[in-house]
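From the shared-data thread, chain only:
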Amino acid sequence: MGQGNCKEFGAAREGPGALKEYLENEIRGLRSIESVAQLRAALDEHLCEADRIAINGDFGAFLLTAWRQIAEDEIWGWFDDDLELYGAWGFELDEVVVPVTVWHGCDDLIVPLAHSQWLAKKLPNADFRPLPGVGHISLAAGGYGAVLDALIAPRD
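Structure, as tokens:
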């Protein structure tokens, strides 16, 4: 996991005050990003090779637009998401009895593979599907085809 994520999640673990301060500093940096190249440079420690390739062309432009929107909307959605990592979800994972597929890009540097493996082990009816050569962003940029194919495939 990239150092930025470690710092962010450490701030979330410390509590709302520390997280707010951390995210406000991050938002200031986001506001200065004006090009896909700058976005790629800002995210570089979190990008595997497949992700670097994915942040090109139309998907890179989409991500730049999304990051600009995040910067305009301030920190609060991001803040809530981070705090939920350490809060109660209102259910225990072993209570989820419906079939769940956990997909994970094996080269993901944003969410470690071990996190998805742990999640799949905690869910009683999970099917863990690692995707070799895929990262966090490259899964979103082009890896959903395999996910969608699996969702519509007939089940035994």
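Helices lie at 3-14, 16-31, 36-43, 49-54, 57-72, 76-84, 113-122, 136-152.
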